[in-house]
Amino acid sequence: MENTHITNSSTGTSAIELSGIRKTFTLSEDKNAQQVLALDGIDLSINQGEFLTIIGPSGCGKTTLLRIMASLILPDEGRVIVEGEAVSEPDIKRAMVFQTFGLFPWKTVLDNVVFPLIVRKYPAQQTREIAIQHIKQVGLEKFQNAYPHQLSGGMQQRVGLARALSTGADILLMDEPFGAIDAQTRELMQEELMRICQEEQKTVVFITHDLNEAVMLADRVLLMSRGPGQVREIISVNLPRPRTEYDVRAHQEFVRVRGHLWRELRNDLIEQRTEEMV
Amino acid sequence: MNLLATFKSRRVYLPILSLLVVLGGWELVGRSINPLLFAPPSSIIAMFGELIASGELLAAAKITMQALFLGYILAVIAGIPMGVLMGAWPRFGDILQPYLYAIFSTPRVVVVPLIIVWFGIGFEARLFLVFFWTAIAISVNTAQGVRNARPDLLEVARSFKVGRYQMARHVLIPGAVPFVISGLRIGAERAIVGVIIGEMFLQIVGLGGIITTASSQLLPAKMLCAVAVIAVLGTIIVTTLDMLEARFQVWRNDSN
Ligand SMILES: Nc1ncnc2c1ncn2[C@@H]1O[C@H](COP(=O)(O)OP(=O)(O)O)[C@@H](O)[C@H]1O
Ligand SMILES: [Mg+2]
User: Fold this and answer.
1) How far is CA B186 from CA A208, B12, B174, in A?
2) Pocket flag, ligand 1, residue A60 (CB < 6 Å)
3) Ligand 1 within 6 A of A36 CB?
4) Beta bridge partners of A235
5) CB A38 less than 6 A from any atom of ligand 1
6) Residue A148, ligand 1, Cβ within 6 A
7) Distance in Å, alpha carbon of B88 to nearest chain A alpha carbon
8) Which residue among B160, B166, B174 sits closest to A106, beta carbon to beta carbon?
């Protein structure tokens, strides 16, 4: 367990700090409806510029945790601190990338990427330039005027990424962004994402259900357990950057971390099953 | 020979054949019936020529179109924002909806006496008959569209901290477009029926007025001329809506 709970205090204030986060959901509007404890006692500090991946069995509260980090929902207890300030509403420091892309089907690629900028009172010309720059960054300059349904899943998520980047947010919150994308495109997009985030010094919280992806991308991997959702372990990944899938797979550190996570996840699933059987 | 080939295709000659048979049958039956009760196509065409020449039909159509188009446009202007409010603010919608449904499903002839009391029998009364029911159709459908907004897209907009106005403009209304257009269609039917009710039961003017007077003067050919113009007005509105729909749906999967 010597790798757990490493926090890097040398970078000053954390990008995101969670303390004592607890969240229950009520399953219907009924007064004595069943309650689900989705998250219980989450403490976490994410460094600026860090790439944190989150992995855990489905239903363990990953999405809930990310939505709390985005202030899309509020925790019942606990605090969310972003760059030193307590937050309770979405703001321009944080941008989400969604599992199902979340593109507006009635807007072109350009208009989708411009969308987050309309709330800021920039001149139209300037928002257009910013958007085009980020569309180029994800390699879609030829598709500016296409509608989402004309693009493949991978391309749609590039638009989702360009949109998040166009906000200028320091923190990207990504919920299984490549989960619905075919394996080869995904590898390419992983490398692009790492390149962009390193260039722009983004802090990234990235949920995945893919162990390889979790280790490949991460500075640290957060392993969650369920019933209720808790932090089971945080592991640092000491692999040099820039990384490519091809180099990293055979690396001793990759194999070590991946193996460790795999055993932990497996134990969690087995524990769960025995509990259900008792 | 090209023309002949086109004519040989079933999609062309069948409708033409059917039209000839129907008109021919109508002409035969129409001539054998008392002309006070029924009119064959030949006398309708003759009457149409007369009505155009005297300017009566055009003047009537103008009166009808004024109330129809003005009432319809006002209904669109009021109905869409109203629907957005009702959809985006469900409690408001829930309070209003029962009344709107009740008014909407009441036959309009029943409220004619009330409308006379409120608006008299002139242009305002006809405008109201067009406007009110059309606005209800549009607002109820728009509200339904807004309430059906995709929750994932609402969350996207929320994550970028958009305000209420922008939420309506960029997310709720575009997402509700198919519903709005079906409201516009239902509203168009309501508008035409409304304007004709006004012209037949309030002040005897316009195309509806021609129908009323022609039928009391036992001039079925004149009556049918007015009916034909009303049908043409309806077709113009529906065709315009079809074009509008095509224009708004470029982003749909079935396009291109
Ligand atoms: N809006 C909600 N209402 C009720 N229950 C919810 C809601 N969101 C999540 N949950 C419940 O909270 C738990 C965690 O869900 P989630 O965060 O989506 O898990 P994960 O993303 O890890 O699969 C699940 O049991 C889920 O059913
Ligand atoms: Mg999830």
Assistant:
1) 47, 31, 19
2) yes
3) yes
4) A221
5) yes
6) no
7) 18
8) B174
- Cα–Cα distance, B129 to B191 (Å, whole number): 8
Which chain A positions have a beta carbon within 8 Å of B161's beta carbon?
A: 89-92, 119
Select from A95, A54, A44, A38 the least CA-distant residue to A208: A54
Instruction: Choose the mutation target among B180, B251, B253 for the interface with A, i.e. most A CBs under 10 Å.
Output: B251
Q: Quick one: which H or E segment has residue A30?
A: none
Q: Where are the domains of chain A?
A: 1-88+218-278
The secondary structure element, H or E, covering residue A205 is: strand A203-207
- Percentages helix, strand, coil for chain A (3-state, rounded to 5) are 40, 25, 40
The pTM for the full model equals 0.84
First-to-final CA distance of chain B: 33
State CA A140 to chain mean position distance: 22
A172: Cα within 13 Å, side-chain hemisphere: 32
Distance CA B11, CA B17 (A): 11
pLDDT in tens, B173-209: 999 999 999 999 999 999 999 999 999 999 999 999 9
Look at A106 and B160 and tell me if their CB atoms are within 8 Å.
no
On chain A, the residues whose CB falls within 8 A of the CB of B166 are 118-119
- Residues A133-192: tens digit of each pLDDT: 999 999 999 999 999 999 999 999 999 999 999 999 999 999 999 998 999 899 999 999
User: Quick check: B156 and A72 CB within 8 A?
Assistant: no
As a whole number of angstroms, the distance between CA A13 and CA A16 comes to 9
The ipTM estimated for the assembled molecules is 0.88
Q: A1-88+218-278 maps to which CATH number?
A: 3.40.50
Judge contact between B238 and B188, C-beta under 8 A: yes
What are the extents of the domains in chain B?
Answer: 47-255
**Could you give the CA distance from residue B249 to residue B246 in angstroms, rounded to a whole number?**
5
Could you confirm whether domain B47-255 is CATH 1.20.120.80?
no
Bridge partners of A21, per DSSP, are A42
